[in-house]
Amino acid sequence: MSENSNATTEQISIIPGRCIGAGNCVEVADSYFDQNDDDATVVLLRDDVPAEDQDTVRRAINVCPVAALALTNSARA
Ligand code: SF4
Fold first, then answer.
1. pTM of structure
2. How far is the CA of 46 from the centre of ligand 1 (A)?
3. 29 in ligand 1 pocket by Cβ < 6 Å?
């Protein structure tokens, strides 16, 4: 009922070629990130991040040792 309509959904993006399969992001936010069975590189399970999950996803991005992930604001006018 109390939906926060001011909240801005943000978007996760993967910077190609960087991921080394460390898996840190998966440990922090396993509903957003998984790892490829073949080479352990990151697989995005969903890319839209509602406000209530942004702290968690930001933490996951910050623990990536090679800065392979980014969160961008996708605010629409
Ligand atoms: S994106 Fe970063 S933290 Fe996630 S698996 Fe790849 S290297 Fe590890």
1. 0.87
2. 15
3. no
* Closest C-alpha among 33, 58, 57 to residue 43: 33
Residue 5 has pLDDT above 70, yes or no: no
Q: How far is 46 from 6, CA to CA, in rounded Å? A: 21
CB 7 within 8 A of CB 51: yes
Pair 44, 33: CB distance under 8 Å:
yes
Residue 6's pLDDT band, with cuts at 50, 70 and 90, is low
The answer to whether 48 and 11 are in contact (CB under 8 A) is: yes
Q: Decide if pLDDT at 7 tops 90.
A: no
